[in-house]
Amino acid sequence: MSRRLFRSLAGVTALTLALILPGAASASHSWGGYHWARTTASFDLKLGDNVDSRWDYYLTRSSGEWSTSSVLDTSVVPGLTKPRSCRPTTGRVEVCNAAYGNTGWLGVAGISITSGSHITKGYVKLNDYYFDSPQYNTPAWRALVMCQEIGHTFGLDHQDEGFDNTNLGTCMDYTSNPSGPPSNESPNQHDYDQLEAIYAHLDSSSTVGAMTASSSGAASSASEFGRLVSSSSDGKVQTFVRQLRGGNLEVTFVIWA
């Protein structure tokens, strides 16, 4: 199974980030400046629970840990989608699990963007095809992937993308050993500091809380990436474009391990 990271821009407004089984630590790990628009110094973001009993603890745990941030609180609420499609809902994040198949990825996080940088909705998909296997069916792997993918929906990128580097003690760090030491199962202070930097300003309007269900589900497989338009000399970093209806594009950025 390949280890890779992808981000996808759908309809010029939707981005997808996937933890695909796997680098240097980043002083700033904002994901492109993307953030939820809000008019108050802190905000409440709902996480829709579309997961089964194998994941409920990790969703609740991650929600509590991210709510330690001084700029956002999250609350776990009943989900509004079917886990298989995991259609996002405007104004919140839907969290889903299902056996999505032999896709090569453990988890996917997606955000939709408007006005250049404002997140309007998000989703997280956790792939039981792998988590039902002995290698990944561990508390440490489940905690890491849940924590990291939810973190992406706030506008956070990875602190480190070196799969075999020493753990940084944060779930926003790629690792082959999430239990450590140190453990990569939870956010660290650098994550909370980055959230404060991302949300240091106020917006004139809010994209949080106004709920509208999406008409389509999230991309799930590498076959959806589209046409290769650029590649690094070693082929480890590539960009793909897929034409969508209405003249929109889906742009996928891939880092191959």
In short:
The protein has 257 residues and is of the alpha/beta class.
Q: What's the average pLDDT? A: 79
Largest sheet: 11 strands, mixed
Distance between the terminal alpha carbons, to the nearest Å?
Answer: 11 Å
Find the CATH topology: Collagenase (Catalytic Domain)
Question: What is the chain-wise order of helices and strands?
Answer: EEEEHEEEEHHHEEE
Given the structure, what is the number of helices? 4
Number of strands: 11
Provide the helix percentage. Answer: 10-25%
CATH superfamily caption: Collagenase (Catalytic Domain)
Count of domains: 1
The parts where pLDDT drops under 50 for at least 5 residues are 1-14, 232-242, 244-257
What does it look like?
There is one protein chain. This protein has a single domain, classed as Collagenase (Catalytic Domain) (3-Layer(aba) Sandwich). The chain has 4 helices and 11 strands. It is α/β, with parallel strands linked by helices. Strands 1, 2, 3, 4, 5, 6, 7, 8, 9, 10 and 11 form an 11-stranded mixed β-sheet that branches. Mean pLDDT is 79; it is low at 1-14, 232-242 and 244-257. The longest helix is centred in the first third of the chain and has 14 residues, at 53-66. Helix 1 (53-66) crosses helix 3 (139-152). Strand 4, helix 1 and strand 5 (72-78) form a beta-alpha-beta unit.
What is the strand and helix layout of this fold?
Layout: E1 4-10, E2 14-20, E3 35-36, E4 43-50, H1 53-66, E5 72-78, E6 93-98, E7 107-114, E8 118-127, H2 128-131, H3 139-152, H4 189-198, E9 227-231, E10 237-243, E11 249-256
Parallel strand pairs: 3-8, 4-5, 4-6, 6-8
Antiparallel strand pairs: 1-2, 1-11, 2-7, 7-8, 9-10, 10-11
Helix pairs in contact: 1-3
